[in-house]
Design brief:
Number of strands: 3
Helix content: 40-55%
Strand order of the largest sheet: 2-1-3
Largest sheet: 3 strands, antiparallel
Radius of gyration: 21 Å
Order of helices and strands: HEHEHHHEHH
Distance between the termini: 39 Å
Structural class: mainly alpha
Number of helices: 7
Length: 185
């Protein structure tokens, strides 16, 4: 009968995570939440919503339909981050970075260096995809035709596209720090 000789780290999770794990975990958690924010809105869509009343509250949905009628902004015309194929890729990469945070910092530390390379590649591709969303906003057609560049009219970016950069670069930094810690770079 052989015993497992891998030392067990019985510190609490936040103490085990270190810088790379915290960046991977919090970047992934924030990224999944940002996936449900509006990424783009149609150009010139200010009529009939609260942002046209100069209340300095763009993109806030006040759902008061039962009491005041349809007073909120038109959420149906906005594209959420998760509704774009590139946004879906980002959200899936954020879920993977949450997995990597727990996998690399488990009590047994039984991972291979190949997984570190995958975490680094995951973060870098997420950062490039978030930048790609900024330089190529979705069109009104959406879907695969949007990625190929032959969609409908272009939409203007909303705050979700810009906020998507924060967790993207956090996961890239987490993968980079993990690769430096394992002396892969």
């Amino acid at each position: 009968m052989t015993e497992n000789t891998t030392p067990i780290d019985d510190r609490p999770l936040m103490a085990r995570l270190g810088n790379s794990g915290k960046l991977l975990l919090f970047g992934g958690l924030i990224g999944v939440l940002i996936g449900f924010l509006p990424m783009a809105k149609p150009n010139g869509s200010t009529g009939g919503n609260l942002s046209s009343m100069n209340l300095n509250m763009p993109d806030i949905n006040l759902d008061l339909t039962g009491m005041l009628g349809s007073l909120g902004t038109n959420q149906a015309s906005k594209v959420k981050v998760i509704e774009d194929p590139r946004g879906i890729g980002c959200v899936l990469a954020y879920v993977m970075s949450i997995f990597f945070a727990f996998y690399f910092h488990s009590p047994r530390k039984s991972y291979t260096l190949g997984w570190v390379w995958i975490a680094l590649l995951n973060g870098v591709l997420t950062a490039f995809t978030a930048i790609w969303i900024l330089f190529s906003p979705p069109s009104a057609g959406g879907g695969l035709m949007d990625i190929l560049g032959s969609g409908g009219s272009k939409m203007s970016l909303s705050y979700g596209a810009f906020l998507n950069l924060i967790p993207a670069f956090a996961t890239a930094a987490g993968g980079f720090i993990m690769a430096k810690k394992e002396r892969l770079l």
